[in-house]
Amino acid sequence: MNDLQTKKERFERILIHREAADRPLVSAWRHFIEAERDSAALADATVAFQRQHDWDFVKINPRTTYYAEVWGNEYDYENYDGVVPAVSKAQIGQAADLRRIVARTADAPPLREQVEVIASVREQLGPDVPIVQTLFSPLAVLEYLCGHRTLAAYRPAVRSATPLPGILAADPGAVHAALQAITETLASYASAALKAGADGIFYAVLGLARDGYLTETEYEHYGRTYDLQLLRSIAPAPVILHTCGPEAHPERFADYPIAALHWADLAPGNPGLHESGPWLHDPVAMGGVDERLFSETSTAAQIREQARTAIGQAGDRPFILAPGCGLPLNATAEALRALRTAVQD
Prior knowledge:
- This protein is α/β, with parallel strands linked by helices.
- The protein contains ten helices and ten strands.
- The strands form two sheets. The protein has an eight-stranded parallel sheet. Strands 3-4 form a two-stranded antiparallel sheet.
- α8 (216-234) links the parallel β6 (200-206) and β7 (239-243).
- α4 (109-125) packs parallel to α7.
- The protein is globular, with a radius of gyration of 19 Å.
- The model has no long low-confidence stretch (mean pLDDT 96).
């Protein structure tokens, strides 16, 4: 295959046409918590990170709480646990509060702010660097509205820790109404994001499919139903779906209308890339490297080895090389360089 000339050509070949390109796509992303409450600062930090590392596409990482802010959740931004600020006011404390969740539009200030970020990143990087915007699933947004941080990464899956099972059981009809309102809101926002310059959506169901959290039946009724509705509204723009952490069951999402499926293939309880052939057909596999390695410069050789192994396992199939989740805040430049250059070896 002839070398492709632009990042956008490679992005479209792999994510739209599902064909192998001259090489796999490669990207990584992180939160910029010092900049995430100001649209100009977040755009500038995102652009600087891209210019430093030259990823094949940019995944914008807004603050994790902006979806819930649409309906009035409030957070203490002086008190972070990792990349999530402490909640100071949640909209849903009991099932009766679900009626507060009504459909909004992309003009809601927290959403409009992120549309501005996309437009600024697009203006600064020009037309040839693909951009994907992060979007949490409706069920994940509902959990945030309950004042609880949705399960992600390697945090333990403890069912008794989340308010979701109780809320789902208390008033299923009100839950469905709230999820429908959230879905309509996110669909309006995704449309605005694409119009502002995003080339696709990074759709995070987070850890909601993990063993020990929700039952498979609960996820089928309250997760999958609204996932599919929202994803169909985003089509035909490419969507990368991310299921987070160990035991994240990527196989349950393989039949979704998505362009790529991203999971931590090296995490306990997850299938490896080499095991995905029998069940992963149309979506492109994405992953290959343990995100926890990036906080130590000494792990660069291990990152390079994992990346090369993943590329080898992909063979002649289209593939996206990436960490299994967002980078640690102290990710080192040498570790990131090991990932970026692995596709060129």
